[in-house]
Amino acid sequence: MHPGDASFPSVIVRLGRTIAAILLVCGVQLVLGAVAQEQGSRAPQTFKVQREPGLTPGLAFKTGLPEKAFEPVDYDPADEAAWAAFEDAVNDAAQRLRDAHIFSALQKGFTPIPIQPISKSGPEATAAQYFPADFGQFTPPDVWETKSNIPRADVNWVRSFTRRVEGPDEQTFIWRDPYTLTAYAVAEHGMLRLVSKVLPIPQSIDDPTGKPDAVGNIIFRSAVLSLALYAAEALTDPIAEPGTERLDLYHYAAAFTGPGDGSASGPTPIYFLAHGQSWSSPWGGISDDSKYETTSAFIGIFNSILAHRDADAFVHIFTRPWPMPDASGKVPENLEWIEWLDEGIKSAPDSLSERKGYSAFVSERGLAGAYVTALSDAISLSRRVAEYAPDKPLPEILSHDYHVRNIFAFAPCQVFEVNLKQAVHDADIEIPQVATRCIKVRYTGPTYGKKERIPPISISAYADGYDGIAYDTLLLATAAGERTGISVEDATAHKAVKTWTVPFEPDVPGGDEMTLAFANVAPVASETVPISVHLSFGISVTGAISTLSTYVNTAPPDEACSPTLVQGPDFAGAVPFPGIASERISLNTNSPVRGELANLVGLIGFGGEDVAEAQLPALFCIEEMRSLVGIDPLTNASAARSGMCLPEIMSAQSAYSQLEKSGSRLRDMSIDFAGGSSLSRPGKLVGQLEWNDSSLPVFPKTRNAMGPDDRTDDPGMMLQGVLSLQKVSETRIRGRIDLVPTDELKTCGKESEGKVTIVFDEVAALPEETGTALVYASPLSMVGPKAWSMMPADARAKLKATSRRDAPKVSTGGAAPGVASDCNCSCDELADPVRSDVCRTRCEGYAAQAPSCAVESAVKRGESRQIAQKRLQACRPSCGDLMTGDPICRDAFPEIVRTCQSDVVSEREISCYVDLLTRNVPSSMRAFAVSQVQKSVDAMNEVARREIIREQIESQKAEGNICP
């Protein structure tokens, strides 16, 4: 391609005759697919340098330049090493595309296509020299305009295969890395082979005066650049810098030097890594006056498409008829191209490959899935390079986060500092059609636990007039991949927000900034409209200060009242509170505060620093798992959360156990609204506080036998106060709670004193709306591409037909929001065999609560808490250990036990499944196919095996296919 050329023509103009002429001259049959090769033999040579003297028959140039600028020359044996390296690179790249069905194979009886050596002024070229200076191009630099009707290569440039030549200033990279340009040229040829399968070209298209189709040019040349990178993965540059010999992701990242990479255009690292600025331009950078750099978003998209096995999806898309000019010569509108690409992706095959360094997606999501996946890959370049080549140093430019700044150069990310004093921020963003906008979060607060965990980031987004389903257009890309989110909707109020709680994962390993990139691509991409979004985001913080004190009667029974002054329990100061504050969503049901205030009061009841350091990492992990697991039907979500967060949960339980031996500890605290107050009508509160104090004497619980008195076993008091809100919106709530003791209870005639002040600043989801319901993301975005590709068609259809909306649930005073009002989610209730059946599935977070309940149950049976804790710490969350080991482990991890108790898919069933999927594979490929299917089985958990393997066996049986 020839982007620097002002005469860059339409993607369609002159295409039909051009392709036909090239392919006829080249003498290659127009077929897609690979030719079976003999075992161990070298791939056939598609291209061969002409080593005989004289002009190749039919050679002609159509560049408009004097022919003397391209003088054909006789082959010089002194250049054999360079020509041989060039010839090998051409054919290796072609074979890479041939294996992916992107290139026509040579048929028996056909001779290789000769490459004609030519002479050009090389590094001393004048201004007449075009990029890529026609060097090494064996199809035209611009695939839509014939510059030559036969492959040719410049001898001066070919010599750079064996020695370094810098070349002209504007072509440094192209001369320094000739292998890349070779792969680029092969990719152009391969693209011609693809498009030659469909030639829906009316006669009027041959009119050279037709208007150039800028949109088509961008899409097709993006495809060529993506194919060039794909072809380059088969090549090795023997004289490259140490550590970058292979033309792969690390090679281009290491060669990435900044804007332009030393060239104003062309196949240079900045384009291969998809880091142009078109991500922030409307319609992915597509416009009538688009520049070459606007291809970058589409290069990334096509790289994701090529992550599918054998590039089947890519081939499918580009062998479909494309939008054409009408009879008057008017070129297609942008919308037509978006529809063409979106529909092509959705109808493409869903099989996957393991293309290293790139992410696949569910094809049925179309352009939306490809876009957000490619955007995540672009942001995560530093991470991908580090994972791709862990034994090599991270290129310096990546460690400075330049790649992210380059993506958003035309719409820079605003950076927000998040800490305990600046916990939550607000921002308004306008996102054009099929485009992205970003914010950056820099965490500067304390870390927690032995692993120095950073609190997860909560995000809430509100767009006026959107319901829960409409938010499918709003996608979140991070360096760790796409985050799907969940919507909270109130149909009565005609409002909805979309929320995410995601781990803090910096763009650069070891860095301190995380990019949150919000993309706007609707499930039907052509229906995308600009969106105005209000965001609240941060770590959410709650904190409490207490000066409470009360009296306890410490006199033995039958003696005069002896008041002892005790201080109230320690409350945590400012503490990160993971999750979203909402009437509907209660993500912390372990809070001692009940009712709709649980989300606001949050994590105040820590009795000491050790507990805070242990409890917070456990809560962070549980919340992160909740956001990452989603509703994947192949995953037992509760079991996954329990198992993955087991070390943090165990550490928290151990720290809490140690706390009981000394000091005061909050035992229970309840706060409820009074007099009709609520979050939407903040006002009076009533509550009760109880705590343990190890310094007090212990007496038998004989109060009822003693008759009426005012002695209690634990310190406690009644509370009253008010809730006041300083800021409340659809996405944020900030305020305070002030509580003082009432005079309803006195001990030895003495009253409790002091006060409690609780403050909070939290990301919220319609906190004032009482009829909210959850709207889950589409299964296409929640289920990973690997799981989706393994699911039978009927299972996919069943999942897609499942209602995504929860039934509305109005909060009630006695139960945590989102929990049925007849369930209090206590350990006693969940241990009851009858009540647990009703409430276990309704009590959010029970998987995390179960270990604590298991210990409490053991204590009630007379066991010391310390021994129960030691038993729990010895548990291992494997089926074998849980089913045959200590009973306390089964009580602590009920969801894992339930999975382990379910029937197991037998080896006979697995063998049948493998046989059914591979029995029609040709014998030469059967061993490979069997190994691949077996690998997919090995990667499944037991739930996935039951749902996929058995369903597939039954489906095949219905079609008459059975196992012996």
Short description:
With 964 residues, the chain is of the alpha+beta class. Helix content is 34%, strand content 16%. Strand 9 (474-478) and strand 10 form a beta hairpin.
3D structure, described in words:
The chain has 964 residues and is of the alpha+beta class. The protein contains 33 helices and 25 strands. The strands form 5 sheets. Strands 15, 18, 19, 20, 21, 22, 23 and 24 form an 8-stranded mixed β-sheet that branches. Strands 6-14-8-12-11-25 form a 6-stranded antiparallel β-sheet. Strand 9 (474-478) and strand 10 (481-483) form a beta hairpin. Helix 11 (334-346) crosses helix 12 (366-379), helix 26 packs across helix 27 (865-873) and helix 31 (907-918) crosses helix 33. The radius of gyration is 34 Å and the shape is elongated. The model is unreliable at 1-41, 121-147, 200-210, 586-592, 629-642, 700-711 and 807-821 (pLDDT under 50).
